[in-house]
Amino acid sequence: MNKDLENEKRLAAVEAVRSVEDGMIIGLGTGSTANIAIREIGKLVAEGFRVTGVATSNATEELALSLEIPLKQLDDVDSIDLTIDGTDEFDADLNLIKGGGGALFREKMVARLSKREIIMADSTKRVEKLGAFRVPVEVVPIALVFAQKQIEKFGGKAELRLKNGETFVTDARNRILDADFGLIEDVRKISAALDSIEGVVCHGLFIDLADVVIMASGSKTETFEKPRV
Questions:
Q1: Average pLDDT value for residue range 22-47
Q2: Residue 228 — pLDDT band, cuts 50, 70, 90?
Q3: What are phi and psi of 8, to 5 degrees?
Q4: Catalytic: which of 107, 138, 159, 225?
């Protein structure tokens, strides 16, 4: 990975973890930037901070346990004080595309239970319009062909995600279609259309879920707040 981008990810992660307070229930994101934040939270736990994590993926759960961060399952919490996660893209309204790592289903569930969601980003993730990064769509296996055809009906082109030449399987044993809509003019319209497809479990358009994006650029960080209505 580009050394400058790696430094930016670290800067954003360290800044995000400053919001962690003793006693919090923390949603733990998935991905390279989230892993840095989880390791920083692990340092706080080693210093005596009392926090409980809720993992957004099996990989995150393994990392958190290796750092002795206490965990609860999603079903065991009514709300989450703060979630810290990464993103593949974000726009001026803090709409996101997430799911490049394949954990979008649990990431979205955790986000919806969170009182506050902080998103970390390097400088490549900020865009004027979402869509250069394809939208991940998690689908139950028997609905793959049907969902692919439905996506094509409203202007998208969907490809089955592979990993090392094999079909990618999510933690929930589902599959992912990566959908290309080009640059998206109306994210809410595309989101609603994806939600309407039978067999779609979740998609990677995260709308009205991020409260703050902390973006690192070079040696500085910039904070973007959710626009006030």
A1: 97
A2: low
A3: -65, -45
A4: 107
